[in-house]
Amino acid sequence: MTLFKRLRELAHRNDEIRLDLDDIQATVLRERPEPYFGTHVLIHFETAEGGRDLLRRLTPHILSAENWWDVRYAWIAAALSFPGLQKLGVPQDSLDSFPTSFREGMAARAEHLFDVGPNDPKGWEQPFGSGQVDLALSIFAENEENWQKALALAEGELEKVPGVTVLLRDDFGAQPDSRNSLGYKDMISNPAIEGSGIKPFPGQGPAIKPGEFILGYPGEAGVPLGMPQPEVLGRNGTFVALRKYHSNAGSFNRYLKEHAGATGGDPELLGAKLVGRWRSGAPLTLAPERDDPELGHDPQRNNDFTYKDDSEGLEVPFGAHMRRMNPRDTHLKLLTDVNIHRIIRRATAYGPPYDPDADSEAEDQVNRGLYFIFISARAMDTLEFLQKEWINKADFIGQGSERDPMVGVQHEDLTFTLPKEPVRQRLRGLETFNVLRGGEYLFMPSLSALKWLGELP
Questions:
Q1: d(Cα 232, Cα 418) in Å, to the nearest integer?
Q2: At residue 426, what are phi and psi to the nearest 5 degrees?
Q3: CA-atom Rg of the chain in angstroms
Q4: CB contact at 8 A, 125 and 68
Q5: Contact between 252 and 268 (Cβ < 8 Å)
Q6: pLDDT digit string, tens, across residues 43-90
Q7: Residues annotated as region Disordered (predicted)?
Q8: Domain boundaries, the chain
Q9: Which one, of 304, 307, 374, 302, lies nearest residue 341 by Cα?
């Protein structure tokens, strides 16, 4: 038994982990409500004084995770970029304690993220990748009234502070049945976290050690990950990767219709083969022939499955988006510990609702897409691994150069393998259906760290 496995075994015997829920930001543990409303705001600090004053004003309004399961109210999340921490006056020895990838920023890490071609930072929307984004605020609410109240509160505080500038404001949510920008129910399979106070849903497997998501606690190896110093700054914080995607819904609809012959003329089944779930959220492995909305809406059943009876990928192709992102018990050609590559996701859709009948080129120009928010104590390393190895390669599942059909960067020579008997079928012509429009690496401090930052001399 390796030292890593031994440490992990010992760690999983310890069921006494208690999280400082009153110090952790609510968004780290709180699921996005359904339905949901909200706003993302990107802010630039013109002066250190302005940035610190804004944090002092906002921190009392940022909810902790103490009652994270209660989503009846709106809440605000705050995260800072490395330039933002610099401008606030964080001491240099503390700045040096942050990971190199975070200090460099997402745009500078394009090679490690395989952000090439249509996803190259040269084509990103402003202000992403410009070095001007210092603070990101996200407001979440379960109804429009609470959203507007929280938004007015945040805007009111912003107006009182000289020396800060709003660079971008994007509203999101209000999609029918909380579908994403291509019509699929999202946010079904987030990992369960040990010490959070709730048991995993069926199919989620054992809860994962909190140190994989929140700094200052044991991770899967039994010890805490390194964290920024001093402890008041790092503990109970986490890292965030924010990525904004534009969805080419027209191209996606056309592809399903034009290639539906591969699934007996059923474009919806083809879509399920690419995603791994039907639009309702029903997993393809539990509903292999047709959608089952009742199953898709049942959290006790919609994640309770494995791939042990689908070792050939006949029901769910190995390259399907969902199977790539969480292989579960799939036999991997390259040995990987799946648990240390899990992330907390907080996806939010923006723009008009998806229209399954709209397949014109003009539909691709509609301002519609997704903000992916990845939360993890090792968010940068995890995202860069996923992007380069699991999304834009397929060696780990023995599929060679194939790429994720939903978020991979495609080109005309690539294929998607559809296992069949007696002969597999290879689909061609996949397009980059979700095009990256920008992103930032961020640090989400604890509430005590936000207070510390606001009071820097």
A1: 51
A2: -115, 120
A3: 22
A4: no
A5: no
A6: 999 999 999 999 999 999 999 999 888 888 899 999 999 999 999 999
A7: 283-310
A8: 3-245+439-454, 248-338+378-434
A9: 374
Nearest-angstrom CA–CA distance, 228 and 2: 28
Between CA 400 and CA 394 the distance in angstroms is 5
What's the one-letter identity of residue 199?
K
Give residue 4's pLDDT: 36
Per DSSP, which regions of 316-433 are E strands?
Answer: 344-345, 348-350, 369-376, 415-418, 425-428
Cβ contact 301:280 at 8 Å: no
Compute the distance between CA of residue 261 and CA of residue 156 in angstroms, rounded to an integer: 55
Mean pLDDT of the chain, nearest integer: 91
Q: By three-state DSSP, how is residue 25 classified?
A: strand
The span from the CA of 222 to the CA of 208, in Å, is: 11
Which tens digit of pLDDT belongs to each residue from 396-411?
Answer: 777 788 999 999 999 8
Tokens of 422: 């007696």
Pairing of strands 434-444, 369-376: unpaired
Q: Which pLDDT score is estimated for 5?
A: 40
Q: Return the half-sphere exposure (C-beta side, CA atoms, 13 A cut-off) of residue 346.
A: 26
Q: Is the pLDDT of residue 13 over 70?
A: no
Amino acid (1-letter code) at residue 195: G
Bridge partners, 315 (sequence order)? none
**Rounded Cα–Cα distance for residues 33 and 371 (Å):** 15
**Pairing state between β 415-418 and 425-428:** antiparallel
**Residue 38: which of 142, 185, 182 has the closest Cα?**
142
In whole angstroms, give the CA distance from residue 79 to residue 450. Answer: 9
Q: Strand, coil or helix: what is 191?
A: coil
Length of the chain: 457
Q: How far apart are CA 319 and CA 415, in angstroms?
A: 10
The pLDDT of residue 7 is above 70: no
Closest C-alpha to 419, from 310, 303, 267, 346: 310
Contact 61, 154 (CB under 8 A): yes
Look at the block and give the residue holding tokens 């060696």. Answer: 395
Of the candidate ranges 68-77, 133-142, 336-345, 391-400, the one whose mean pLDDT is the lowest: 336-345
Whole-number Å distance between alpha carbons of 18 and 20:
7
Is residue 284 over pLDDT 90?
yes
